[in-house]
Amino acid sequence: MLPDAYPPRQRRHHSREFKRQLVDQCQPGVSVAGIAMANGINTNLLQRWIRQHRAGGDTLPVRANAAIKLVPVSVQQEQPSSVGSMIEITLSGKRRSAALRWPVSSVAALAPMRA
After folding, report:
1. Mind giving me the DSSP string for 3-53?
2. What pLDDT sits at residue 41?
3. Nearest to 86 by CA among 72, 102, 71
4. CB neighbourhood size of 35 (10 A)
5. What does the pLDDT look like over 34-46, one tens digit per residue?
6. Could you tell me which residues are beta bridge partners of residue 86?
7. Model pLDDT for residues 44-85, shown as the tens digit of each residue
8. Where are the domains of the chain?
9. Cα(33)–Cα(25) distance, rounded to whole angstroms?
C-alpha cells in the first residue's frame, strides 16, 4: 500500500553568485562530481552550468584532459639581436616534444599565431 500523500517536490533555485562560485571551483584536476556532492547538487546540473558559462563567452579551463598540467617556464635575459638570430621555442612532455625555430628578421609572420 502506498502512503496517502507525498510532499510535493519543490524545484530549487540557485543564485547566479552560487552558480558562479561552483563553476569557478571547477579547475583542471578537480572533481566536478566532488564539488557538486559537497554542495548538495547533481553533477549533471553543475556540468550544465559549466556549459552555459562557456557558451556565454566566458572562458573556463577545459577539463576534458586532466593530464594537462602547467609546467615551469624560465625567461632568459634578452640579448641584442643580429640579422642571423633565431627565435626558438621548445615544448617538452613525457611522450612528445615540439620545437619552433624562426628567424628574428621574419617575426612579423608569427603575429597571426598569437592567442
Report:
1. -S-PPPP------HHHHHHHHHH--TTS-HHHHHHHTT--HHHHHHHHHHH
2. 92
3. 102
4. 19
5. 999 999 999 999 9
6. 103
7. 999 999 888 888 755 444 444 455 667 787 777 666 655 568
8. 16-55
9. 11
Given a contact cutoff of 8 angstroms between Cβ atoms, the answer to whether 35 and 22 are in contact is yes
Task: Provide the whole-model pTM.
Answer: 0.43
**How far is residue 114's CA from residue 90's CA, in Å, rounded to a whole number?**
16
Cα 47 to Cα 109: distance, rounded to the nearest angstrom = 39
Helix (H/G/I), strand (E/B), else coil: 65: coil
pLDDT of the residue at 15:
84
What's the pLDDT at 35?
92
Residue 67 C-alpha cell reads as 593530464
Spatial neighbors of 43 by CB under 8 A, at least 6 apart, are 32, 33, 36, 37
